[in-house]
Design goal:
N-(1-d-carboxylethyl)-l-norvaline Dehydrogenase, domain 2, 2 domains, alpha/beta, globular, 8-stranded mixed β-sheet, single chain, Rossmann fold, 16 helices, 365 residues
């Protein structure tokens, strides 16, 4: 089977590597000639250190490069059974690309978008054979991250979903089905991890106290350090996207985050963040209460998504653990603390919340 990839930036090249390493023949292209010309050398450069450390055999590196064919045009992807796009994250660009692909490939070829935030149904709208369009959301870096979110819009054909799942699982990924709704599973359910930390920050707690509390609760990185790692600008854009789409105080865009971006304190990439370059200090005396507050809001967001349908509690837990390296998923949090304790925590937060956050802590009805 041949798999096509469009877009040879970090994500697209990583996806190409995933499938090539699994033994698939991969045809990949990019609109920019320099990206095409440098693709194999960039891939080799990323793999050679692993060979030097003994983590990858030279034969395996050679096989990956042999399985990857860089092609100049979209027409050259016509033999592919599945094509994954990893281009710029805008709806017009993705719709234009899929329309161009539809004009030169078989009506049976599956078109998969790697979007992390756009509606798959909106991308498919107006295309010939929209039933073959679906989402395959890989996480960065694609070769290392195990999770892939499989997204079906209302008209996606079951046969397309089956093939996409089969080839992606054969490439070593854990595939979790999720609804075609803003943020899918991980980006949506992660919002309280950041948001409640920002609420605490605006209430006067320090970034060090907040992150130290979460480290003490078993998390490998605190929420504000994670914003520093991802980039405050990226986190702001994701939160604004969900707020625009869902218009609810659960996705409130906190001033602390906007101020951080306005000041250019984006985290590691700018040299200064909420905490970076400093590590968190010791946990505060009320570390357990801080962690419970953040975990209660994580559980509440997951309950809202579950109530919407199209996903399972087990799927949400697994997605958050694989996608964000959390020590436990939201429903495991409920089991750990008890539903009554989570409900009481949310009720207390609701009673104390300012007017602009009213309804933020309310559970689904």
């Amino acid at each position: 089977m041949i798999i096509g990839v469009v877009g040879l930036g970090t994500m697209g090249l990583g996806i190409a590597q995933v499938f090539a390493a699994a033994g698939y023949r991969v045809y990949a292209t990019d609109a920019l000639e320099p990206a095409r010309a440098s693709a194999k050398s960039r891939l080799r450069a990323s793999l050679e250190p692993r060979v030097a450390k003994g983590a990858l055999a030279q034969d395996a590196l050679d096989a990956v490069l042999s399985n990857l064919r860089i092609v100049p045009t979209l027409h050259d992807l016509s033999p592919a059974a599945l094509i994954v796009e990893a281009i710029v994250e805008t709806l017009p660009a993705k719709r234009t690309l899929f329309a161009a692909l539809a004009a030169c490939i078989s009506s049976q070829t599956i078109l998969a978008t790697n979007t992390s935030s756009l509606s798959v149904g909106a991308i498919a709208q107006g295309l010939p054979h929209p039933e073959r369009v679906l989402g395959l959301h890989f996480f960065n870096p694609a070769p290392a991250m195990k999770l892939v979110e499989l997204v079906a819009h209302a008209g996606t054909a079951p046969t397309a979903l089956m093939l996409a799942r089969r080839v992606t699982e054969a490439a070593g990924k854990t595939v979790i089905t999720c609804p075609d709704s803003p943020g899918f599973i991980v980006n949506r359910c992660a919002r309280p991890f950041y948001g409640e930390a920002l609420a605490l920050l605006e209430e006067g707690r320090t970034a060090s106290e907040i992150d130290a509390a979460m480290l003490a609760a078993g998390y490998k990185i605190g929420p504000l350090s994670l914003i520093d790692l991802i980039g405050a600008d990226i986190n702001l854009a994701a939160t604004q996207s969900l707020q625009t789409a869902l218009s609810h105080p659960r996705y409130h865009v906190f001033d602390a985050l906007k101020a951080q971006v306005a000041a250019g304190h984006l985290g590691r990439k700018s040299g200064q963040g909420f905490l970076f370059p400093a590590p968190p200090g010791p946990p505060p005396p009320d570390a357990e209460a801080i962690a419970l507050r953040i975990e209660a809001t994580l559980a509440n967001e997951a309950a809202w998504l579950l109530a919407q349908g199209g996903v399972t509690a087990e799927g949400i837990d697994q997605a958050l653990k694989l996608g964000l390296n959390f020590p436990r998923g939201p429903f495991e949090i409920i089991a750990r603390h008890s539903a009554a304790k989570i409900a009481a925590t949310l009720s207390d937060l609701d009673s104390k919340s300012p007017p602009y956050l009213k309804a933020r802590y309310q559970p689904p009805s």
